[in-house]
Amino acid sequence: MKIVLAQYWTDNLTYSQYTQAINEAYCKEKEYIYQVETDSDLIKTAIKDRSITWFKPKFILDTLEKHNPEYILFVDADAVVLNDNHRIEDFIIDGLDIVATEDYGPSKLNAGVLLIKNTAWSKDFLNKWWEICEEYPQYKTGLWHDQTCFGLLMDRTSDLTSHIKIINPSILNARAESKECFIFHAFAYGNIPCRTLDKVYYQKFNLPVPASYKDSLVDLAQFYGTDKHSVHNYISSVYSKVFLPIKDSVKLFVEIGIYQGASLKMWKDYFTNARVVGVDINQSQVEGCEVVVCDQSNSEQLEVVKEVIQNADIILDDGSHKMLDQQKTLAALFKSLKPGGVFVLEDLHTSIECKMPDKAWCGWGDPDKTTTLNMLENFIINKTIKSDYLSDEESKYLEDNISDVKIYKVNPMSITSVIIKKEKVKTFIVYHCFLVKKWRELVKEQLDRLASTGLLNKVDKLYCVVIDPDDQKEEFLNLISNYSNVEAEFQKNNDFEYPSILKVWTIAQQEDCKILYFHTKGVFNDYVNPNKNDISDLKIKTVRDWRKYMEYFCIDKWQENLNKLDEFDMVGSTCNLNWWWGNFWWATSKYLRTRPAPGQGSRWAYEAWSNENGMAKIYEHHHISFIPYYTDYPEEFYKDGLYEKYINSDITIHEALYGNNGIAIDEGWTNLDKPIYNDVTDILKQTVAKNGGKFIDITPGNDNLQGDPCWGIRKGLYIKYSFNVDPDTIYTLFTTESNRLIFPCFKRL
């Protein structure tokens, strides 16, 4: 049987080389005649004042005349043979002159694929098709109006069913690729330069994708015909810009929801160094990619996927688009994303449709519950995850690990988001240890606290910088051998905190990291007088309270501190006049690199070094105005869940003394051999009464506390008080002259 496959196009067609190569090869294999007209001048002369699609009836008549075949299969320029197993004869219907297919729009047929028998009736119909346009001049110039006129001619043709059959288009005139279809008609991809026919060409002939395509995500999107580009415009608007800087470094790309695999193939060719994994509810195969079957609404199946995709660089959710599935998938698989990785949550327009009654049939989710779009928008504003679908633990993990969220509203029906996971920033501790007096008990207690809170396992290294005047190195090493991630370096000379601060500065120059600095607070200063051997039990107790206060906010709250350092330079408790009282703090290496290298000097210089001149952006968990020496400050005054009972309690003043108690705060404090005071109890009672019995607010001085009891000597205000909620417990409180005291200070900063 003599059959012709016929096409035409003008010389400006971008994809003609692919169309011709595919269809010509098919005709050669099946021994059909392949007729193609590409003479632009001839075509334009023939159609005169009509659009180019009107060349169709003229061209078919000329081809029948030229080859005199039994049948001609006309296909548009963007139509190609996809499945070579089909033969044209398979679609011939005996007794009929024309076989066409249903249109995907309002027309009676789609005139892009026509199987025509060489009969007098067919030739007469083709001539009438050309002529009918003269009756409808408005249809001369619009594309595809030849198709409209074909339908008008059918309406006026008697015994039509004896000559023309309109069949289902899924095989003979398919607008989407499938393994079954014979002719793939790519009219639906008109906004893509080659209408995906270049992709069909390379796949059909088993040719590698052109190397130039792999450098451009837009080119690949057009090549594979993914709706991420053709429908939503995500590729050119968002992904090509977000992914370009990491193109060569991506080792694992995961896409949830792969449909027919177009985008998965695109990712495979773009991320040339990556393992590409597709996750879909249906089993499928995509060459060069792994496909894992998973229903993302099933938590157990998500757990399996989580293990398969550990340390993924990019995870893209283009799955069900349902609120529950999106949020549960984010919570589950974000844990598999590597630090600094990218999670893309696509098609967030369903969050809007979720609230629309006329879209209830879509089943996107409960309109009264959190939409995914609202959840992400709330995080951008408040840095919190609020979801009706997630547990507190899941929400907390996301809050702690999301670095940034950006939402891209390309158009009302195309909304996507890019969620960045926090980088794994190294964490170090520098621990200044002074091996004197009862150092063993203190070091063990502090190391145990680091271990019990989980911080010691979190850090990359704990550096102990040890002042060892009495050669106790072996004993110290034996003690720290019971803990992980600990190193020690020793020196004999007591340069105070200089070597430890220098260690902090050195680490900051070498690493992008977060650093905790603390020390064996109070190990040496337990004396009444620095020049004598007598011990102050009051000082030991109150300094211990102070140390535990700083440890609570710096060590126990380490996770919060690490998060705070994403926003602040330094974190701690009580920074007065740019000075972290007690010298326990967290800092970023980025900030510490702005500090000059510490030089040797007085011990107070090392305490002031970290925030000298107040250049750091700081976060204080808590602030005290009293002097911690001689002040009882048990954990129930500041620890979460304990301090609240004291907030509204009245205060009773039992004793208030202004002067010097004969105990030196430190070596810089001038003290007396015996206490000398003014009894100012009544003055303090009056001060508290003026404040409704709730708090003390006073700046001690000679003028307001009955004169100078010990001229030339540094003075302080020593108070004994109780809370009315616990009247039997007497506490001490201390501040120095000219230092404003506001107490209590339960309010969090």
Low-confidence stretches at least 5 residues in length (pLDDT < 50)? none
CATH architecture descriptor of the largest domain: 3-Layer(aba) Sandwich
Strand portion: 15-25%
What is the name of the CATH class of the largest domain?
A: Alpha Beta
Estimate the global geometry from the Cα principal axes.
elongated
Features:
seven-stranded mixed β-sheet, Spore Coat Polysaccharide Biosynthesis Protein SpsA, Chain A, elongated, alpha/beta, Rossmann fold
Overall description:
With 749 residues, this protein is of the alpha/beta class. It folds into four domains: 3-189, Spore Coat Polysaccharide Biosynthesis Protein SpsA, Chain A; 208-421, Rossmann fold (3-Layer(aba) Sandwich), CATH 3.40.50; 427-619, Spore Coat Polysaccharide Biosynthesis Protein SpsA, Chain A; 635-743, no CATH class. 32% of the residues lie in helices and 22% in strands. It contains 25 helices and 30 strands. The strands form seven sheets. A seven-stranded mixed β-sheet has the order 11-10-9-12-13-15-14, with helices on both faces. Strands 18-17-16-19-23-20-24 form a seven-stranded mixed β-sheet, with helices on both faces. Helix 3 (55-67) packs antiparallel against helix 4, helix 4 (120-132) crosses helix 5 (145-155) and helix 8 packs antiparallel against helix 11. It is elongated. The termini are far apart. The mean pLDDT is 93.
